[in-house]
Amino acid sequence: MSTITGKEQINNSNKLSYLKDFNEVFEFVKFSVNSAYKMKRAGLSLMLHRMPTRVGAYHILGSNVIAVNSFVLDLVKKYSTSNDEYNSYLFMVLLHEYLHSFGILDEYKVRWMSVELCKKFFGEKHTVTIMAEDPLKIFPQLGLISYDKFENEFEIIKNFDNTNQTYIQ
Ligand SMILES: [Zn+2]
Fold first, then answer.
1. Is the pLDDT of residue 167 over 50?
2. Which residue in 16, 23, 33, 123 could disulfide with 9, CB within 3.0 to 4.6 Å?
3. Ligand 1 centre and the CA of 97: distance in Å?
């Protein structure tokens, strides 16, 4: 992985805290993965899905879909004390699934790559780096809530545009 200066880490941290929506955070994830690992791909769709709390997000193998648990996301939004914390969670969760979408299935490897990227890109002490190690370190409340249902409603957030469409299945 190429080296990044302390100044770039501060710029990256500032940028993360100001990102406004799902698409902007995902673009930043893609940029960071390309800088860190020289890996890029296009055409992914993001999907919000209310599902059991034990599933933070998932990638459907062989598909272009990354799904994020919107039940957990709502809790994260509620517990976040800053935009920085919320965006850090979003970044971490999208980064994890984006790495899976390259066909890297090994959980340990994806987690390790995520932590390494966050350390280099934002610094060891940044919220996003701590979250990449363990989200419960920042949001211990998440460990106390248990929700056990996969709902049949999805919100698809398409990449590269800002139009959100809701599909009921
Ligand atoms: Zn995973």
1. no
2. 123
3. 6
